[in-house]
Structure formats: structure tokens, C-alpha cells
């Protein structure tokens, strides 16, 4: 070529000139490397201009040639990347994406071939071509690449997948790793290749393989761009797959959510309903639109608000991941209904809570929901039965096959005239040919199994891949034992495979879903072996530390009763069963209570695959309920005993009722009741369950003696399970009578222990669970006894009181009598000698006057004055005592007339001393004790007269007027008055402010006034300023 | 004009010798003509009843103290006033006591008058004089 070009240039340029010709050419070296040479040819002329020869200088320009090419290729590569990016943005599914990317690499990037192989997770670790473009001509089918660490796995593709690094084969011609595929590659003109790993964050999905016709392609810049492209592709694939998975999951969730028979809703953290399903809308009677936006509180029974709030708080505080409880809701109709609620807190990737998902089961409608579920499962099963099945029979003698009409269609082929093993193998996916053939040959071979069954792939002419399942049976063997006729059937299981793949992809999700379900769920296979169980289940049944997957339910719980095993069998046969409250005696002896529901689950085939157990350990709830029942029985017993012991106030009756009722209520064999008197406990009552049973000597105890006495001294209830071994029980009678367990309940009244109840049982008994009840019973009995005792004391006290009143009355009467006698004696026996003294001193003065001198007469006069004073004192005292004793009479008093008459009595003195007396009393009849009032007024008048003796112009004013409580009379004088501090003292008997010589008096007058007023319910008081007179006030009530 | 029989005695029932003496002196000062019989206690007073039955002249009046040894004045009063024949004899209770109860009882038993003995001798003389004036001179007793 070089020579020809040179020659041509000679001819072309025949002009004699200095001539320079530059030629570029390339050649391939022995080692296969292509080199580029530039020749500079100069024509040599002689002096006459005749060409005499040429010079030719060759220059190796391989490097610069490569540079040029690489710029060219870089440009194309950049355009290719840009095109690919657009493809990735718009791709809707994986297949399209891959196909278009491959095409872009070939068409835009100018490469010979591009294909994508996925790393299969099968045993052979095969690389499955998923897309391709460019000049291929069956190349891919010949590859059989693997990414395992074998010779076929050491090619660029396998290595790239295994190592995650791009692998370049700059020269297919020489690359030793390319050996297995070299001849096929060179045949198709591939000179170099690059295998780029397609990897996402977790794993290597496969490899993008690009082939160039140019040897030594894929230099650094280009490689970088292609690596970038592969990464973009991985990202594109990832996002497509994620999008798909998400869509499936979302769809599944949405379907589950929307079609769930239970009410389901998503709520905000604040409790607002964000999304509700149809069932919930129906349950509440609101349309979904109305229900969404409501707050949970609006549809909750007002008494149950706290239950939900409590649950939310627990979850928000991270105390529990999920809760379940029962509460009441409110329908639109205003009707309430009970629901079983399960709620879980959803968290985003960063662990921040963002929603609650809540499942509400209307307990009243549970049955209905169950039926709906069965119906829907039935539909599902029917739809899976529409599978397309073909049958065939193959004869190894004639290598022919007879088959049903639809057989070939399952391979994507029209009816074939001849069907032999090759037809089969050709239609089969290259990767599956080997093992398919192997399975068949093994079965047909001498001693092989008669049956085989496997799934394999076929590639339709349109290159789509379908899954078939074949079952075969050797029906005839020749004398050597080799199979001659095999018969079987074929089924398209593509759909199932897809479902299986989808299932496989979603298995993790499903597992999470079950495991994290807020309910206790366990799934079993037909042999009752665990498939999966939720965390809640493991916690509730204390299985956290065990591996239960694959183990039998009956091995995990050997205590499972036969009855339940029968239920499991019924459910495995298709039944759905449930129980609201079912006892579960545990292996450890504990009795648990569970609420459960068991339903079968179905395989794809529609067959029952096992059962699902939903359960809830409700032991606490049942025990609480039982406790409530027990409590209400106890309460009723308490009320009954309380009522009975309070029906009487007679102590003996209270005691006998108490012991009798106690025997009944606490089912004791004997009940003693001891009452305390000081340090002694006396048996006040005893009751035996069997009345005819003889009990020894009637006992009595000391405080601190035996268990009953100890209960009293310690002031606390004491219980003995076995009195025979209990050191506290010292009294032998109980043991002789055969009692085993004993309770001693002190009877307490305030701080005081008033007695003790003893309860004896023949059978050994644990008092602990009943202790509170027994002690309350005892307190009821104690209060009844205390009441009776108090009543008796009161009776006793009343009797004593009556006795004392009688005694006091008698004493008082005697004292009165004495006083009367005294007054009588005073009037007679004191007055008689006075009269003697006065009489004889008078006679002495009269008849012995002449014999007495003046002084003697003065003495006698003094004697008679003293007698007069003595007489007055006696008179006043008598009057005072008479006031005390006399009966107050109530009558009408004409006040002005009374005052007039009193003034008239003293008129002599008034006239003589020229006292100005003014009376201002309205004519008025008032209601008062006439004698008392008269006495009081007289004494006040005398008082006024007496203390105005030394006043030059004496004035006495007597005024009367209505007052608040009745009538008020003022007696006012301008006498010497008194200091206010004495205003109380002057009314006391024998109290005098002056010496008798100044103002004579007995010191009884004002005491008489006060006594008289008090006796009629009135009062007297005084007001005065010394030297300016005094005013005395009398007030008489109406 | 004295239409009354001054010969009929006055019976003084009084245990205190000084009072007896002073009363007698007072009668004397009042120039009472009737003879004075004295009973020193209730028993002595009642001892007159058989004598009166035997024919001794009935007293014109009886001056009766109440607080008497042995038999109380009120018992004496009751026995005389409950006697069919002697109930007509005017009985003047002359005593130191002015207890309402005694005054009331005395009148209920038939006393004709109830006079409190004054301690002051002048007043006592006056009382005696007035008794004499009224009961002996003015009053006409049944025969």
C-alpha cells in the first residue's frame, strides 16, 4: 500500500519540482500492537531537474495518532454520557432502561457491542445477560460467564463483578484472561473491551460490558467516563427498583389498609385522624372525608379519654413500641361501642416519631369481619386455579414426543412438526440447559429415580424469558434399566415465579411487619412448626431467649392441652376459631389466661399452609376481673355482716350474730370471739360449722397467751398455716379439736384492742390472699361490738345519772328544807333574844330612869340602836333568802301606780328633806313579777334617799321607757355616786362602799335588787360618777 | 261600853320566858283586865282541852306562838280548830316568823289573825294594845 501510494504521487506530480510527499500509514506489529508511521518523502532531482531518486524518512506517530483518536472518542463518549443520562431520567422500567443504554453506547458512543449482565445469586453464580445492543451475532449465548472464582469467572465481566473494579482488556488478542472467549470475540471483530461493575451501596448488581473494534481503546479519560456511566446506571437501576418496591409495598399497604376488615387509621402525633380506611369510616358512620380531620377525642367515650392518652404517652416516652387496649368509641349515631385497639408509633429513618398507626376492631362486629375474610380468601383461591397445563410423552426409542396442543405454546413456539431433545434444549434458557438435561438424563439412566420435577426458563423467540415447571415420570425402562418412555406435564409458572420473586423481595418487609406488629402473632406450618412470630408474642410468652423458628409449637410449650391441639387441627382443616378468655395452665404451675384467634393461612396454590395464631395474654385482666368479682362478693359479705351486727345493740346478740355470720362468710370450721377485760380475754361467743361438734372446756386467755392473746398484745392480725408446728400456738384444745390453720384477728376500736376473733380451719389454708378481707370483717365486727359496748355503757351511765339526779334532788330538797329551817330559826330564835334585849333596855330606861345617869341612859340607847340594826339585818337576810326560795309569779303591774305607792311610803322623809322627785313614767301596764319588781324599786328608792342625805338639793328622777327587750326603769339621783370600778361589786351581798356610821345599811339591799331582777329574767346595772350621783337601770323582759 | 266578858281568860301559848314576861307586862301596861293563862309549850296548850270540856271557862282569845317545843304551834292550831266545840275560839298567831308558807298554813287551819311580833318593844306594846282593843273590846266572840 505504501509503495502504491508513493508511485501514484509520482505520476500525479509529474511537474519537475522540489516535491514533498507526506504519507501516513499503520501496521500491526508481530505482537499484535498497531503502530502508526508518518513518512516524509522527498524527490531528489539532478541539476537538470531530472528526478534521480527519493528520500523517505519514517517517523513513528503512534502516540500522536492515539491522542487524536482519543479526542475523537472522548467527544463521542461525552455525547454518549449525555444521551444515557437523558435515558435514565425518562426510563420507566428496567428492561427499557437497559436496552436504551446499550443502544446509546453503540449508536452514540460508536462501540461495537454493549451488554449488561446481572450477577445471579444462584449456585453457579451465573451472569445473566439482561440487555444488549450492537454487533453480537449470538456472541452472548456462547459466553456462559460466571462471577465465581473459577476460570470462567476470571474474565473481565466476572472479575469486575467479583472485585467491583473496572476491568479493561486492551487487547483481546493477547489478554490471557480472555482466552475462553477469544476466538468468538475475534471472529466478531472485537479488539478490546471494558467490563464495568454496576454497584449500588450494598452490592454489585452486575456488569456493563463494552467492546471496541480498536485495540488499546479505553484510556484513562474514557474509562473514567464509562465508570461514571456504570455508576449512573447502577443508581438508575436502584431507583427504578426502589420505586417499584415502594410502589408494590405502598400498594400492598394501601390495599391492606383500605381493605382491612378492621378499622385502620393514621393519626398525627397530636391525635388528629389523617387517613382512615373504609372499615373505620363504616364503623363510625362518618364519611372518610368527615372522619379525616377529626380528633380522636371527638370520637371517644368521654370516660375513656385517659386510656388513649395514656397509651400515646407511653409510646412517646418510648416505654413501649406499641400498645393494645380496649376502649369505647362514639358513632355518628351517638351510640357507643367497645373496640379492641392496637396502636404503634411509626418513626422515620432518623428515629423521629411522625405518625401513629392504629387498628380498631369493633368487638361487636368481629364475627362479621371474620366471615368477610373467609369469603375473600375463597375468591383468591379460585383465581389461582386457572393455570395452563400441558401433558407430554417422550419416547427415547424413537426420539419423538407426543404432546397436548398447548405444549409448544408454553415454549412460545408455534406447533412444531418435530419435537426432540434438541428442540427442548434450544428453547431452554442457555443457563438452564445443562441442569435440565442433567435432571432428565439422571432419571432416565439405569437406577435413576422414576420421578423428576424442576423449574426452568425458556427464551421465547421475542427473547422474553418464561418459567416452566416440568414433572416427568419414567413409565418404561428397557432390560438394562434405561428409561425408554417418559411421561409428564408442563405448566407455565412465570406468574408464580414472579410472585415468588416479589415475595422473596418482600419477605424481609413482611417479616418486619409481622415481627413488629403490636399484637402477639405466630405463624405455623401444617406440622405446627413456627415460621415466624412477632416480638410481642416472644415477650408475652417469655420466648425471647429461645430460637423457636422451625421448632414445633408443642415442643416449645409441652403444656399445651389436648383441647388446643384439636383446635389447631380443626383450623388446619380450614376452620377459624377464637376464644375471648381461655385458661392456659403453664408448665411452671402458673395459670395464664389468653384471648386468641386462630385462622388458617393459604399457600399460593390455595392449600392451607398452616395457621396463624393471634393471641393476647390477658392473665392480668382476668385476674383483675376475678379480683373484682371476689371483692364484690367480699363487699357483699362485709355489708351483710355489718348490717347484721348492727341490727341489735345488745352485746350478747352482736357477739353471737358475729360468730355465726363469720362461720358462714369465711367458711371457717370454728370462730371464737374473745372480749378483753384488762389483761383477761373471755370467750364471749363461739360458732362451729358443724353445730354438734364438741369443743373442750370453754377457754379464756390472757393477753399475750397463744396466738389469739398475741394478736391482742401485738395489736395486729396473726395467721398460722399450721398450728401444730407454730411456736405461737400454745393452747392444746385447738389442736385436740383437729384444727390445722388459724387466724387471729384483733378487734380494734380506735387505739384500743377490745377483743379478738379466732378462725380455725381443719384444712391447711393460706390466709394471705384473704387477709385484707378478713381484717375488714374483723373491723366490722369490732365496730358492732364497740357500739353495743358503748350502748351498754351509755345505758349504765344513764341509769347512774338518774340515780345521781335523784340523790342530788333529795340533797337539794334537804338543803332547802334546812335553809327554810334556818330562816325560821333566824326569825324566831334570833329575834326572840333581840326582842328581850330591846324590851328590857326599854323597861330599864322607863322604870329605872331616875337611877340612871346620862351616860347610863346613853349606853342603853346605844344597845337599843344596835338591836334595831341587828333586827334590820335579820329582816334583810330573811327577805333575800325568801327571794331565793319563793316562786316567781307573773302578773300585770301598773308601773306608775307602783312608783306612786312606793313614793307615798317614803313621803315623810321626802317632804322632810325637801327632795325634788320627778317621775316620768307613761301610764302603762307591764308584765312582771309584782312583788319582785316592787321589792327592787323600793330598795333602789331607799338607796337613792340614803346617798343623797348629805346633798344640799337632793334630786331623784324616776323614768320609764320601752327598751329592746322589754321595759326599762331608771332611778337617778344626785348623791355621792361611786367609782365605776365598783359597779359590779355593789350588787354583791354584804358589799359596802361606806362605813355604817356614814350611810347605815346592811349591804344586802342591792343584792336583793339583783336577785329579784334575775328571778324574773330581767337585769339591773348602774352608772355613776363619784360626787355627781348615780343612775340605776332596771330592765324587765316582755 | 264593854259588851265583852272581861272575866274570860286570855290563853298565851309561848315558850320563851322573856317573851311571856314582856307580853304580860305589855297587857298590864295596856290595862287588860282578863286573867292571863300561859302554856309554855304545845303540850301544855292542848292540856287545856280536857279542862275546857270539864267546864272551865273557854278563853276569850288564844295568842299562839308557832315555834314551840314538843308540839308545834300549827298542830295546836289544827287540833283546836278541828274541835267541834273549841273551833270558835279566836286564835291570833303571834310569832316572829313571817314565812309566807306559815302564814298561809295558819290561815288555812283556821287562824283568825296572824301578827308578827315586832322586835322593837314600843312597837310590841302597840301590837299588844291593839290586839286587846280589837279582840277583847271590839270583837264579839260567839257564846
- What do we call the CATH topology of the largest domain in chain A? Beta-Lactamase
Secondary structure category of chain B: alpha/beta
Biggest interface pair, counts: A-B, 24 and 22 residues
In total, the number of strands of chain B is 5
Oligomer: heterodimer
* Element order of chain B: H for helix, E for strand: EHEHHEHEHEH
CATH architecture annotation name of chain B:
3-Layer(aba) Sandwich
Widest sheet: strand ordering of chain B: 2-1-3-4-5
Q: How much of the polypeptide of chain A forms β-strand, as a percent range?
A: 25-35%
Q: Report the sheet with the most strands of chain A, covering strand number, pairing sense and barrel closure.
A: 6 strands, antiparallel
Shape of chain B: globular
> What gap, in angstroms, lies between the N and C termini of chain A?
163 Å
Mean pLDDT of chain B: 88
Task: Give the domain tally of chain A.
Answer: 7
Tell me the domain tally of chain B: 1
Low-confidence stretches of chain A: 12-17, 380-387
**Average pLDDT reading of chain A:** 82
Fraction in helix of chain B? 40-55%
Task: Describe the protein.
The complex is a heterodimer of chains A (1038) and B (143). Chain A is α+β, with helices and mostly antiparallel strands. Chain A folds into seven domains: 2-60, Beta-Lactamase, CATH 3.30.450.20; 70-246, GAF domain (Beta-Lactamase, 2-Layer Sandwich), CATH 3.30.450.40; 260-373, 2-Layer Sandwich (Beta-Lactamase), CATH 3.30.450; 389-492, 2-Layer Sandwich (Beta-Lactamase), CATH 3.30.450.20; 502-617, Beta-Lactamase; 625-779, 2-Layer Sandwich (Beta-Lactamase), CATH 3.30.450; 886-1037, Heat Shock Protein 90 (2-Layer Sandwich), CATH 3.30.565. In chain A, helix 18 (619-645) runs antiparallel to helix 19. Chain A is elongated. Mean pLDDT of chain A is 82; it is low at 12-17 and 380-387. Chain B is of the alpha/beta class and 143 residues long. In chain B, 43% of the residues lie in helices and 15% in strands. Chain B has six helices and five strands. In chain B, strands 2-1-3-4-5 form a five-stranded parallel beta sheet, with helices on both faces. In chain B, helix 1 links the parallel strand 1 (10-13) and strand 2 (36-39). The A-B interface holds A 820, 823-824, 827-829, 831-836, 838-843, 867-868, 871, 878, 882, 886 and B 16, 18-19, 22, 25, 66-67, 95-102, 117-122, 124.
Amino acid at each position: 500500500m505504501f509503495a502504491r501510494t508513493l508511485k501514484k504521487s509520482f505520476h500525479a506530480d509529474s511537474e519537475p519540482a522540489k516535491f514533498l510527499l507526506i504519507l501516513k500509514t499503520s501496521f500491526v506489529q508481530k505482537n499484535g500492537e498497531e503502530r502508526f508511521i508518518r513518512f516524509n518523502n522527498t524527490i531528489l532531482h539532478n541539476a537538470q531537474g531530472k528526478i534521480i531518486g527519493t528520500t523517505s524518512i519514517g517517523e513513528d506517530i503512534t502516540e500522536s495518532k492515539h491522542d487524536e483518536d482519543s479526542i475523537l472518542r472522548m467527544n463521542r463518549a461525552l455525547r454518549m454520557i449525555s444521551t444515557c443520562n437523558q435515558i435514565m431520567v425518562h426510563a420507566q422500567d428496567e428492561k427499557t432502561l437497559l436496552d436504551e443504554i446499550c443502544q446509546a453506547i453503540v449508536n452514540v458512543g460508536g462501540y461495537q457491542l454493549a451488554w449488561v449482565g446481572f450477577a445471579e445469586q444462584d449456585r453457579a453464580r451465573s451472569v445473566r445477560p439482561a440487555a444488549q445492543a450492537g454487533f453480537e451475532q449470538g456472541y452472548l449465548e456462547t459466553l456462559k460467564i460466571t462471577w465465581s472464582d473459577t476460570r470462567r469467572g476470571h474474565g473481565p465481566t466476572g472479575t469486575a463483578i467479583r472485585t467491583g473494579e473496572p476491568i479493561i482488556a486492551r487487547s483481546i488478542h493477547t489478554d490471557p484472561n480472555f482466552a475462553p472467549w477469544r476466538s468468538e470475540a475475534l471472529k466478531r471483530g472485537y479488539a478490546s473491551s471494558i467490563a464495568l461493575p454496576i454497584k449500588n451501596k450494598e452490592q454489585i448488581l452486575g456488569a456493563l460490558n463494552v467492546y471496541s473494534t480498536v485495540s488499546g481503546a479505553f484510556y484513562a479519560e474514557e474509562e473514567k467516563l464509562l465508570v461514571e456511566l456504570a455508576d449512573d446506571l447502577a443508581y438508575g437501576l436502584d431507583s427504578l427498583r426502589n420505586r417499584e418496591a415502594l410502589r408494590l409495598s405502598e400498594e400492598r399497604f394501601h390495599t391492606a389498609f383500605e381493605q382491612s376488615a378492621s378499622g385502620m387509621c393514621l393519626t398525627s402525633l397530636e391525635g388528629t385522624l389523617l387517613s382512615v380506611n373504609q372499615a373505620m369510616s363504616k364503623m363510625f358512620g362518618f364519611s372518610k372525608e368527615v372522619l379525616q380531620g377529626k380528633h380522636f377525642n371527638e370520637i371517644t367515650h368521654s370516660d375513656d379519654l385517659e386510656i388513649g392518652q395514656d397509651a400515646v404517652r407511653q409510646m412517646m416516652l418510648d416505654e413501649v413500641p406499641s400498645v393494645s387496649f380496649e376502649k369505647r368509641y362514639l358513632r355518628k349515631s351517638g351510640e357507643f361501642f367497645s373496640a379492641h385497639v392496637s396502636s404503634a408509633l411509626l418513626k422515620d429513618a432518623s428515629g423521629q416519631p411522625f405518625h401513629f398507626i392504629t387498628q380498631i376492631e369493633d368487638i361487636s362486629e368481629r364475627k362479621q369481619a371474620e366471615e368477610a375474610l373467609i369469603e375473600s380468601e375463597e375468591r383468591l383461591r379460585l383465581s389461582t386455579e386457572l393455570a395452563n397445563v400441558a401433558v407430554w410423552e417422550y419416547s427415547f426409542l424413537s426420539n419423538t414426543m407426543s404432546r397436548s396442543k398447548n405444549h409448544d405454546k408454553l415454549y412460545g413456539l408455534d406447533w412444531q412438526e418435530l419435537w426432540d431433545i434438541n428442540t427442548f434444549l434450544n428453547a431452554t434458557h442457555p443457563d438452564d440447559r445443562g441442569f435440565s438435561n442433567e435432571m432428565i438424563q439422571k432419571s432416565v439412566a439405569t437406577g435413576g429415580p422414576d420421578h423428576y420435577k424442576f423449574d426452568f426458563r425458556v427464551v421465547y423467540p421475542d427473547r422474553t424469558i418464561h418459567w416452566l415447571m416440568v414433572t416427568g415420570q419414567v413409565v418404561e425402562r428397557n432390560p438394562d434399566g434405561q428409561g425408554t418412555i417418559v411421561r409428564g406435564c408442563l405448566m407455565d409458572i412465570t406468574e408464580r415465579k414472579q410472585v415468588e420473586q416479589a415475595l422473596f423481595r418482600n419477605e424481609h418487609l413482611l417479616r418486619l411487619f409481622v415481627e413488629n406488629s403490636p399484637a402477639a402473632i405466630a405463624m405455623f406450618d401444617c406440622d405446627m412448626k413456627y415460621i415466624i412470630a412477632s416480638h410481642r408474642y416472644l415477650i408475652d410468652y417469655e420466648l425471647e431467649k429461645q430460637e423457636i423458628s422451625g421448632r414445633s409449637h408443642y415442643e416449645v410449650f409441652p403444656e399445651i392441652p389436648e383441647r388446643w391441639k384439636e383446635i389447631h387441627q380443626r383450623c388446619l382443616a380450614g376452620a377459624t376459631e377464637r376464644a375471648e378468655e381461655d385458661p392456659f395452665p403453664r408448665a411452671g404451675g402458673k395459670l395464664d389466661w389468653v384471648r386468641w384467634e386462630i385462622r388458617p393461612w393459604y399457600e399460593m396454590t390455595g392449600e392451607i399452609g398452616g395457621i396463624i395464631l393471634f393471641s393476647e395474654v390477658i392473665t392480668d385482666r382476668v385476674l383483675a376481673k376475678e379480683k373484682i368479682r371476689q371483692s364484690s362478693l367480699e363487699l357483699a359479705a362485709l355489708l351483710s355482716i355489718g348490717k347484721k351486727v348492727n341490727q341489735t345493740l345488745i352485746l350478747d346478740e352482736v357477739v353471737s350474730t358475729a360468730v355465726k355470720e363469720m362461720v358462714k362468710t369465711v367458711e371457717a370450721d370454728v370462730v371464737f370471739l374473745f372480749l378483753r377485760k384488762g389483761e383477761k380475754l373471755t370467750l364471749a361467743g363461739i360458732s362451729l360449722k358443724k353445730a354438734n361438734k364438741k369443743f373442750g372446756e370453754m377457754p379464756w386467755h390472757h393477753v399475750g397467751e397463744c396466738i389469739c392473746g398475741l394478736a391482742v398484745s401485738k395489736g395486729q392480725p396473726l395467721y398460722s398455716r399450721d398450728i401444730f408446728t407454730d411456736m405461737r400456738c400454745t393452747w392444746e384444745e385447738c389442736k385436740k379439736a383437729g384444727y390445722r390453720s388459724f387466724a387471729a384477728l384483733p378487734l380494734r376500736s380506735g387505739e384500743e384492742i377490745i377483743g379478738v376473733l379466732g378462725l380455725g380451719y381443719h384444712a391447711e389454708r393460706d390466709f394471705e390472699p384473704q387477709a385484707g378481707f378478713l381484717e375488714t370483717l374483723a373491723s366490722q365486727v369490732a365496730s358492732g361490738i364497740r357500739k353495743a359496748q358503748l350502748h351498754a355503757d351509755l345505758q349504765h351511765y344513764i341509769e347512774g345519772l338518774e340515780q345521781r339526779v335523784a340523790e342530788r334532788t333529795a340533797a337539794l330538797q334537804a338543803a332547802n328544807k334546812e335553809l327554810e329551817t334556818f330562816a325560821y330559826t333566824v326569825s324566831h330564835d334570833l329575834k326572840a333574844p333581840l326582842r328581850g334585849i330591846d324590851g328590857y333596855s326599854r323597861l330599864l330606861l322607863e322604870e329605872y330612869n331616875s337611877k340612871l345617869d346620862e351616860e347610863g341612859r346613853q349606853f342603853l340607847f346605844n344597845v337599843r340602836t344596835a338591836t334595831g340594826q341587828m333586827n334590820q339585818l335579820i329582816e334583810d337576810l330573811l327577805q333575800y333568802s325568801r327571794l331565793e326560795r319563793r316562786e316567781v309569779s307573773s302578773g300585770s303591774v301598773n308601773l306608775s301606780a307602783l312608783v306612786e305607792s312606793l313614793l307615798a311610803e317614803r313621803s315623810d322623809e321626802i317632804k322632810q328633806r325637801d327632795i325634788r322627785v320627778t317621775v316620768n313614767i307613761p301610764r302603762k301596764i307591764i308584765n312582771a313579777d309584782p312583788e319582785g319588781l316592787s321589792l327592787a324599786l323600793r330598795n333602789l328608792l331607799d338607796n337613792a334617799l340614803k346617798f343623797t342625805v348629805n346633798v344640799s338639793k337632793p334630786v331623784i328622777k324616776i323614768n320609764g321607757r320601752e327598751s329592746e327587750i322589754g321595759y326599762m326603769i331608771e332611778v337617778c339621783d344626785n348623791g355621792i355616786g361611786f367609782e365605776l370600778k365598783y359597779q359590779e361589786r355593789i350588787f354583791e351581798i354584804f358589799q359596802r362602799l361606806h362605813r355604817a356610821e356614814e350611810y347605815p345599811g346592811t349591804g344586802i339591799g342591792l343584792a336583793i335588787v339583783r336577785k329579784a331582777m334575775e328571778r324574773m329574767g330581767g337585769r339591773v346595772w348602774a352608772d355613776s360618777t363619784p360626787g355627781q350621783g348615780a343612775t340605776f337601770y332596771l330592765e324587765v323582759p316582755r | 261600853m264593854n259588851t265583852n266578858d272581861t272575866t274570860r281568860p286570855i290563853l298565851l301559848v309561848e315558850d320563851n320566858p322573856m317573851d311571856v314576861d314582856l307580853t304580860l307586862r305589855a297587857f298590864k301596861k295596856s290595862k287588860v283586865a282578863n286573867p292571863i293563862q300561859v302554856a309554855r309549850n304545845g303540850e301544855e296548850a292542848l292540856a287545856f282541852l280536857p279542862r275546857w270540856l270539864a267546864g272551865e271557862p273557854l278563853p276569850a282569845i288564844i295568842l299562839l306562838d308557832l315555834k314551840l317545843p314538843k308540839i308545834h304551834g300549827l298542830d295546836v292550831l289544827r287540833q283546836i280548830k278541828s274541835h267541834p266545840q273549841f273551833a270558835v275560839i279566836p286564835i291570833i298567831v303571834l310569832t316572829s316568823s313571817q314565812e309566807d308558807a306559815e302564814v298561809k298554813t295558819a290561815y288555812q287551819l283556821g287562824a283568825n289573825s296572824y301578827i308578827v311580833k315586832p322586835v322593837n318593844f314600843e312597837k310590841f306594846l302597840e301590837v299588844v294594845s291593839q290586839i286587846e282593843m280589837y279582840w277583847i273590846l271590839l270583837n264579839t266572840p260567839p257564846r
